[in-house]
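User: Structure tokens for both sequences below?

Assistant:
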Amino acid sequence: MRIGFVGAGLMGSGMIRNLADAGHEVVLHARTSSRAAGLPVTLAGSIAEAMDGADLACSCVTDSPDVRVVVDGLLDAASPPPVLVEMSTIAPAVARELAERCAARGVAYLDCPVSGGPTGAAAGTLAVMCGGDADALARAVPALDAMGDPEKRFHCGPVGLGLVAKLVNNMLVATITTATAEALGRGQRAGLDPALAREIVMRSSGDSWQLRNLFARVLEGDHVPGFTVRNLLKDLGHARDLDDRVPPLADAAADLLRQVPADLDYGAVARLTMDLPGE
């Protein structure tokens, strides 16, 4: 399959390597060409060039304005691909708007945000939450199989619901992370080694993915970004827009995250409530 791809950042680079390893030809447009160094791709000078004549389009960029640019470029192609797999986490309402624009050119839009971070992208084990037409999703399966774990791929319903699922997930990421940091910090100040506390809780009812995976790095003072504070705050903003009701726990988590440098990994929020190496 020939795949036009936009985005070669922390997530996109791993996705691209797995697509190539699965035998797909990847034509990439990257705003920062240096990010394409060493990737198994053909570089394109524009989004339209990357998409022209492709069997499938894939995009993994940052937010709604970036996806609008991707769709503009795709629709400028002389022969756009029949399906766009949009893996960015953006506002569901924007996805629905862009899906209508794509449909007018005969392109099916799938919102397929992912979870698993750069490690999952590199390993090809991402969870994928899909919104859109089932037939279009079936056409995208060979690419999605290369980038993620089929057992962790879910068709959530029409366009936009894949994004709703991802935003629900990231609300929990934020609230569980901040609550875990608060609890471990409180135990630490009371004399309990936080590494021991982590081991205890992992075998008890307070266990979580964040505790098992993120906090192994947090306790070492490692806040190298996999998922930045900036991007988690962006997702919490989109999640807030899903409903008119105030989300008190997510808002409290966002208030804490805003006190952390935006380019650090979101686990750095633990600095606010814990004594960690490197501070």
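Moving on to the next sequence.
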Amino acid sequence: MSRIHMIRHGRPASTWGDADQDPGLDATGAEQARTVASVLLALPEGERPRRVVSSPLRRCRETAQPLAAALGVPVEIDPRVGEIPTPAALEAEARPGWLREAFQGRWSDIRGDLDYAAWTRQVAEGVASHPDAAVFSHFVALNAAVSVATGGELVAAFRPDHVSVTVFDVVDGALILVNKGREASTQVL
């Protein structure tokens, strides 16, 4: 058995629909990244992450960096723990509305050119493949991993706050939810 901590990125410098499609962290987000690194470093030796994995997106990489620096390890990039893929035909400005609609239903109901229920399994496999790691990811990917671990079907059954830490164990290659992280008090959108 191994333990994995999956962390939502810190507060980004811009939000959905803004011109920057890959924003980094704002000042609050940078402070959140330092704080979550301290929290993870304070865990008992057997629970403390030894590796750092991130979504390719800048806000996740920047959130991961303080922990990686403190551990003296590189940030490993894994696209499987990245943001939910947008349908190819969807214009960038339509993404927020598409996500709002997706958040209201089940994984199998999401409109697009992808099997989003299968995508949740890919996310979970990506997370499970990083034993003893801190995995820095996104709101929707965290929901995907929790859904697979619990057998849930709702896209937004969980509202992880910025730098919320969700804990999984991996048993025989499968994610087992130990503890959901802190939930946001406001909606993501």
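User: Anything stand out in the second?

Assistant: Strands lie at 2-8, 51-54, 75-77, 133-137, 165-171, 174-179.
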